[in-house]
Structure formats: C-alpha cells, structure tokens
C-alpha cells in the first residue's frame, strides 16, 4: 500500500513538472524573436539528453565524463535563452517587453494634405483610417472639420456628426462636444442662430438633468444676443449722422455730450427679464447679484441670487467655490460679522475637502481677521503747525 502511494505521488509530481516545463517552453517559443531556432534546439536537445542519461547509467565512469561533456554543450546552446528568461522581467519594466503597442489611427498624413490645400485627399485618408477604426472620435471630428471649414459643405459635416451621435455606444461627453461644435459652425458659417439652438437642444433632449444639459442651457441663453447681432449684420439699417456741436471749443463744458449710461435699475430689470426666460444662465444671475450688492447695497437680494447658483448640484466645484468667495466678499463689504463670513468660507471646506479650492479657503480663513482690519478706518494723526519755507532760512538752502 505504501509503495502504491509513492507511485501515485511520483506520477503526479512528474506530470506537474512536465506541465510546468511544457508551459515554460510554450511561452518561450511564443515570446521569442526567433521561435524556429528554439524549436530546432529542442529537437536536438531531446535525443541528446536521452543519450546523456543512457551513457551515464550504463557506461560507469566513462558515461559520467560523457554526461559532463554533453552538459557543457547543452549549457552553451541554452545559456542565451535562459539568461533572457531570467532578465526579461527587469527589462520589461523599461521597454514594455513583448507586449505589442496599442493600435491607433494615424491622421498625420491627412492633416498634412489638408495644410497643403488638398481637402479631398485629406478626406480620402481620413476615411481610410475610419475604415480600420470605425467611429473614432478624433477622425470623425477631423472629417467634419474639413467638410465644414475647408469645403464649406456644412450639411455634409452635420451628417458626419449625426451618424456618430446616433451610434449607441458613443460617450456622452463626445456627443455633447459634437453638437456644440455643430452649433458653432451654424453661427460662424451660416449665421443661423435657430440651427445652432436646435443643435444644442439635442443635448438637452438626450442628457436631461446633467451637467452637459446645464452647459447647453447656458449657451442657449446667450444665443439671443448672438441672434440679434447676426440679424443686425444682415439687415443693417442706414445710420443717420447727427450734426456736430458748433464751436465746441468755446463751450464752458462738454459733459452733456457724453452718452447716457444705463442706470443700475435698468440693468437689473433687463437681467431679471432675461432670467425669467433662461433661469440657468449663471453669468446673468451673477451679474444681477453684483448689481444688488454694489449698486443697491442689498446683501439679502445678492445672497438669494448667489444661493441659487451655489445650491445647484450640477455646477462644478470650482464655480461653487467662486460664488461662495464672492458672497464672502459681499458680506465683508456690506457689514456682516466675522462669524457669518467664516461660516460661508467653511462651506467650501465642508463640500470639497479633497480639492484645491478647500486649501485656498483655509488660507483665506487664516487671514480673515486681516481682511476685516483692512476695512477699519485708520486713526488720523494730527500734525503740528510747522513754519513755512523752513529750507530758506539762514541764508537759503545748504549746498552739498
């Protein structure tokens, strides 16, 4: 029974050793620069090794020396490969080993052809790359750019981008970038604000309640100004020149000639009306808060406007930190106490403890007392009455 157990254990050990050796040989052949040479050496080594064992077993001392000689020959044959296997884990850290480089599309030829004024040849090369790498975002955008900017074929560019956006696995940020670029081209190349608005509304429809949708809403809110500018350029009315003021050099004052500035009330009313239509326009809401704080000294109204921006979860941390710092500025300028300002700045640290904006807030908190001290009027020092022309006494100023 004991002998049977030894046989089973020996057989299993032999099979495991042969498996390990076979796996090592397979990996060596696969990763070798010249697998054919290793296969030839294996064909030579197997009968050679069997002969070594036979000579050593049956020929006694002569067989021993024969085995030593044959072992030396095998060492010379296999040492380069064994050394390579042993050192390869270290060298692979620097040269990447035998891992093939990642295949990527190359658009340098297409860009060179485009720069040389050959857009059709560039398109041909881009399409060749896209055949090998379908829906590659860089290639799609480059193709649409050549079609729109070099050939002036905006419908073809729109079709190219739309095919990419209709691809189900297309990443959301790339789809939004494609529609945003299309909106830019509609404004720049065809002067069509409605088409630009339609392109941006695709982002709202596909990704509602996301940061991408919020950014698209803000761009749509600013399209009204761009649309008015484009319309003015298209239908430019004749400008009637008014007669100039005669004898302007003889007038006591020319202040009445300055154009009337918009009052803070008119600016605030315009921003309020704009926000009724586009409530997510951060630029307009921040401007309204500035008017309330700087022109009307109304900290409560400015705080309400900034609170809407600060409490919007889809805004970026950097933007929220900017508005909290701006609110702290208003609080300091308009007479809030130090604890109120400290609470405002501490919200940055609480909401974004691991971001750089938290470090900046901590630094400002450390010097907050200095900010308050800087607003206090310095005590006036009353100077004594000194004699006039003191330097002219005693025969005039001294000569040096």
Can you walk through the features of this model?
This protein has 4 domains: 1-30; 32-89; 109-233, Tetratricopeptide repeat domain (Serine Threonine Protein Phosphatase 5, Tetratricopeptide repeat, Alpha Horseshoe), CATH 1.25.40; 264-374, Serine Threonine Protein Phosphatase 5, Tetratricopeptide repeat, CATH 1.25.40.10. Helices cover 71% and strands 0% of the residues. It has helices spanning 2-31, 35-58, 60-95, 108-115, 119-132, 137-150, 154-165, 172-188, 193-206, 211-234, 264-277, 282-295, 299-310, 317-333, 338-351, 356-366, 368-375. The model is unreliable at 383-400 (pLDDT under 50).
- The appropriate CATH architecture of the largest domain is Alpha Horseshoe
Contiguous low-pLDDT stretches (5 residues minimum) are: 383-400
Q: What is the CATH class of the largest domain?
A: Mainly Alpha
Q: Quick one: overall form?
A: elongated
Termini separation: 123 Å
In brief, what are we looking at here?
The chain is an all-alpha fold. It contains 17 helices and no strands. It has helices at 2-31, 35-58, 60-95, 108-115, 119-132, 137-150, 154-165, 172-188, 193-206, 211-234, 264-277, 282-295, 299-310, 317-333, 338-351, 356-366, 368-375.
């Amino acid at each position: 029974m004991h002998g049977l157990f030894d046989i089973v254990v020996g057989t299993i050990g032999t099979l495991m050793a042969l498996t390990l050796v076979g796996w090592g040989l397979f990996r060596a052949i696969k990763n070798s620069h010249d697998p054919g040479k290793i296969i030839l050496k294996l064909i030579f080594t197997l009968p050679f090794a069997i002969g070594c064992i036979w000579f050593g077993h049956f020929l006694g001392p002569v067989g021993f020396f024969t085995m030593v000689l044959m072992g030396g020959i095998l060492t010379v044959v296999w040492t380069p490969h064994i050394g390579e296997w042993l050192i390869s884990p270290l060298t692979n850290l620097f040269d990447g080993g035998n891992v093939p480089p990642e295949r990527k599309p190359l658009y340098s030829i297409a860009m060179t052809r485009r720069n040389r004024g050959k857009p059709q040849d560039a398109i041909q090369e881009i399409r060749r790359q896209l055949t090998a790498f379908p829906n590659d975002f860089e290639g799609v955008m480059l193709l649409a750019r050549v079609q729109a900017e070099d050939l002036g074929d905006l419908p073809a560019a729109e079709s190219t981008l739309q095919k990419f956006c209709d691809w189900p696995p297309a990443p959301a940020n790339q789809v939004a970038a494609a529609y945003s670029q299309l909106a830019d081209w509609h404004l720049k190349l065809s002067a069509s604000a409605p088409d630009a608005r339609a392109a941006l509304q695709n982002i709202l429809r596909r990704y509602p309640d996301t940061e991408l949708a919020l950014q698209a809403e803000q761009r749509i809110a600013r399209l009204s100004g761009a649309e008015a500018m484009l319309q003015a350029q298209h239908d430019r009315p004749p400008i009637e020149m008014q007669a100039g003021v005669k004898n302007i050099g003889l007038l006591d004052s020319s202040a009445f000639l300055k154009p009337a500035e918009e009052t803070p009330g008119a600016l605030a009313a315009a921003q309020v009306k704009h926000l009724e239509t586009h409530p997510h326009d951060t630029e307009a809401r921040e401007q309204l808060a500035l008017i309330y704080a700087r022109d009307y000294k109304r900290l409560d109204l400015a705080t309400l406007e900034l609170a809407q921006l600060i409490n919007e979860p889809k805004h970026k941390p950097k933007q929220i930190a900017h508005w909290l710092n701006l609110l702290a500025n208003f609080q300091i300028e308009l007479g809030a106490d130090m604890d109120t300002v400290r609470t405002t700045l501490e919200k940055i640290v609480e909401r974004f403890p691991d971001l750089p904006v938290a470090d900046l807030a901590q630094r400002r908190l450390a010097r907050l007392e200095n900010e308050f001290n800087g607003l206090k009027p310095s005590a006036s020092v009353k100077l004594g009455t000194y004699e006039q022309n003191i330097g002219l006494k005693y025969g005039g100023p001294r000569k040096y």
